[in-house]
Structures are given as structure tokens and as C-alpha cells.
Predict the 3D structure of the following.
Amino acid sequence: MTTLREREGGAPARKGAPRPSGTASPSREIRKQAAATPWLFLAPYLVLFIAFVLVPIVFGAWISLHTWDYTRPLKPFVGLENYAELFRSGSGQFTNFWGSVRATGIFTLFSVPLLLTIPLAVALLMAKKFPGRNFFRAIYFAPYVLGVAVVAVMWRYLLDNNIGLVNYYLGLIGLPDDIAWTTSTPAAWVALVGVTVWWTLGFNAVIYLAGLQDIPSELYEAARMDGASPWQQFVNVTLPGLRPVLSFVTLTTLIASVNMFGQSYLITQGGPGRETRTAIYQIADTGLRNFQMGSAAAMSYVLTLFLICLSLVVFWLFRERKDAR
Amino acid sequence: MSSSVETRTPRGAGPAEKPQRRLQPRTVLKIVLLALVALIFVSPLIFMIVTSFKTRSEATAIPPSWIPNPFSLDAYKEILAPGTNTPVLRWFANSMLAAIIHSALVVVTASLAAYPLARMNFRGKKIVFAVIVATLLVPPVILVIPNYLLVSELGWLNSLIAIIVPTAASAFGVFFMRQFFISLPDDLEEAARIDGANRFQMFTRIILPLAKPAMATLALLAFLGNWNDFLWPVYVLFTPEVQTLPPGLSTLQSANAVRYDLLMAGAVIASLPVLALFVFLQRFIIEGVSRSGVKG
């Protein structure tokens, strides 16, 4: 305490003490400090951020302009050749890359709509207070705290062709009981999408639920007074009220789906053939198993560009409706 | 609501009846329905736990049993035995060590960085914050190849530090802590300033004690994220002794394709700490997640 007083002296304290009412708030004073102070606070984070986020973003682009085999001493500069190869039909990388983009596309196309609607239904069911609500919320959220490795290893057992629980119960209710969930399509897609929905629906439901609770109940009362049916209330009160949350959930779900990796790596091993090998899987394997890092980096930039375009579309979609209102 | 209110207004009398405590049939129906769905929903997890206590043959028996008979610890004994190529105990220790250090690193760096971004005025503040937030939208895959080379250059390949440090620059963490610091009253630091405290003292003595719940939440989320991370550890940790549980489970799976008793025991061990954290700190985790969504 004494050193504290000595170092700063009494002057700044006295300066801040008398404040004319209504004018400069104390926070104005408090926000003045030595120029270096904020940067000292920021320094530890910025060191990590620059070294492992900013520099890699630029370094990755540099790598993508080379034939970069990590195990060889020479890394010749090839310009945009790695990118050109991705767009030249018939080249080795062309089929592999676009095959994997197709797999990611299929997965995204089916998982995103399910992950937007099912959690919303769950959240709507739990929007009103009732005994045990927090318990149910926790149950639906629980799978999300598990890692993809646990989830995938567990489901590979449940989906086992011969002794799996899923096929056993399907058989009991008179459905085919010999579906090869992990080694044939389209069953493998049903499995991958299903597992992902089971795993992550609680995350979206919890976010929806928080959004629903932010909608003022007076809006519902007013709608009811006007004689709005539950469906009309949903369309005219709930959905508009959820707009910011909807755009957040859409964006995060989309990004997560495009980044799908572990489920396919552990449940189907990318099979049958390469059919469920996703883009991330392909990039990681090309770069970190085959050490064709230039190619892999180029792929990751193309994929990122895709994702940024998709994100912009989502932003635009949600903004547009807002204007129309 | 107190019961005296209920006794004063006779049931069914008067239009001013307050919301009843009694459950409507519809609510009961809803609860029953939700409970049924919830039971089916968690049944895979229950079956995973049940199977981990089965013998090797019972784990693949048809029809599947929901109660192990006999109740067996063989699977655990086998995977926890020393001297295997799949040292589950070692993976557990590695995962724990990495997740704890990582989470501490995230909380310290993110809180320090978020403070000036929330409560100081300085040149460059907007740009720094915008750049940090923008990277939230950068898919992590773009960092995988360059960071692999960086980590290899630093001599970190195949060691735990590779999964502790590079992922610790958490843009989410900074965003999350900044939101919290902004929500604190404006004149909080004033008293400390009168006492002659410097910025760092204001931060440690006034702001941090108030920020404990937010820091705990961030620590939890960072711990979970690191504990569960899969892609990065799979590629940067290659020998069994340095692996963590997620890549370890993958190794276990390729070594014992149909030994489901072992695989489920491994999966249970890998989920035990996170499920325990979830059971006890459920509120923090769920509220942390939902807060990030609504504000984001």
C-alpha cells in the first residue's frame, strides 16, 4: 500500500476528486494513462496472436506458392501452379480435392437444416418455465461437452453392422437390420449427419433458448390480444425476435459443418472409397501425411474463400429481411 | 409464491386468479414426452458406460444387454495395465496437464488483453479489436499447415507444448472477457485512482475479483476445448507416450477394431472429467455458451 501511494503521488488523485456535476464523467479521467500501459496489458496475448494466428495466415499463403515438401531441402517457387492444379480437371489433386469438397457439401447440405430446426423445436418446448426444465436443458446439452473422439468411437460401436445397437433395434421394429452404416452410402451419410445432430443439437438449443428469453412477453400478449394463433405468433413475434440469434446460429453451424473432420476420420475412415472424406480431412492428409504442403495450403485458401463467401451470403440474407420489415 | 396468497383467494373464485402452481395436464404431458425423448437421447451414453463393465464376449453379444452380467472390470484392468502400446493412463495425465496449462494461459492472456480494450482509450484500440474479432471467422484449417511448420521449427513437434501454446491465442476469450469488463460500472476504478493506484493495481485489485465468474467460465470452456481437441493433436503428437486422450482413442480404435469392451472403457475414461465438470458446473458452461451466442 505504501509503495503504491509513493509511486503515483497524490496529484492525479486530487485532480479526479472534485467533479462538476453533469459534465466530464469520472471514467473520462480514469481512461487516461501512460501511452504504453494498454500495450503492456495486450502484449502477452498479442505475442501469441501474432505468432500463431497472423503470421501463419500470411505464411500459409506464401507456402501455397511453392512446391513445399517438408521432408525435402528444396522448396521451389511455383507461383499459382498449386491453385491452377486444383482447377485443372484430370490432375491428381483435382479429383481428390473436389471429391472431398463434394463430401463436405453433402454433409453441410443435410446437417445444417437439421441443426437449425431441431434445436429450435427443442428450445420452443422448453421456453416456458416448468418443473425440471434446467434438468432437461442439461440432458440435451450433455453430448456437446464430449469430444468428437469419444462420440465417434462410441457411435462406431452402436452403428456396427453386425452387433450394433442401432441395427438390432431397427430389426426389432421390423426394419432392415443389416445396414452397413459405416461402409456404404447413403447409409454412411445418414450416420454421419445423425451422429453430428445428436452431438451438437444441445449447443444450438441453448443459444436459441437464451434468445427466446430475450423476447419481451408483452409482444406475445399484444399478439394474443389481436387474436394471433400460436403459428402466427411464431411467425410474427418469435422469428423476428430471434433474428440476431438465428444469424449467429446459422453462421456457426455452417462453419462447423464445413470444418467437419473427426466424425468422418473415426467413423467411416473417409469410406467407402473416398466418398465421405471431407475437405478438411483431405487437406490435413495431403499436407501432414503426404507432406505436399504447398498443395494443401492452396486447398485451405480455396476452402476459406468459399467459407467467407458463404458467411457473406448469410449476413446478407439476415440483413435483407431486416430492411424489408 | 407464498402459500398464504393461495389460501386467501379461493380456488376458481374471482377473475384476478394468479398463475396457478398446479400443473396443467398439457404441461404434464409435455414433461412426460420430454422425459421419454431425453431417455432415448442419453441412451447411447448409458450403453457406452454399461458396455465398459462387460466382458469381452458380452460386449459383442446379441441381443445386447443393458445390465452387465457378470459385472466386470476386465476392460479397465486391461487398458490401464502398464507396458502396453496404448498407455491410457499416460494419455489421461497428458490430457489433464495440457488442458490445465492451456486453460490458465488462455484466461491470463485474454483477461489482460481484454481489459484495455474494454476500459481504456488509446490509439489503435479499434483496429486491434477488429483484427482479433475478424479472426473468429477464419477457419482453423488455414492455420494447420503453417503452424505445423512453425511448431516443427520451434522443436515442439511430438511434445505437449505443441497443443498447449499455439491454440492459446483465443480471439473468443478476448471477446468474451471484453464483453464482461464493459458491463461493469464506469466509475469502478475511481476510488482506486484516488488512492493512487496504477492501472495494473486497479486491474488486479478491483476488476479481477469481480471478474471471477467470467474467468471461471472461460477457463472451463478453454479446458473443454483443449481436452476434446482432435485434429491438431492427431497430427502433431505421433508417439503413444506423448499423445492425449482424443488421438489416443483413435490409436486404441485402430489397434483393437472390435474390442468394444476396451474401446468403451477408453471412451468412458476420456469423458469422465468433462462429464464430472458438466454435472457440477453445468450452469457456468451453459450460461457461458448462451451468453456468447446472444451477444455475438
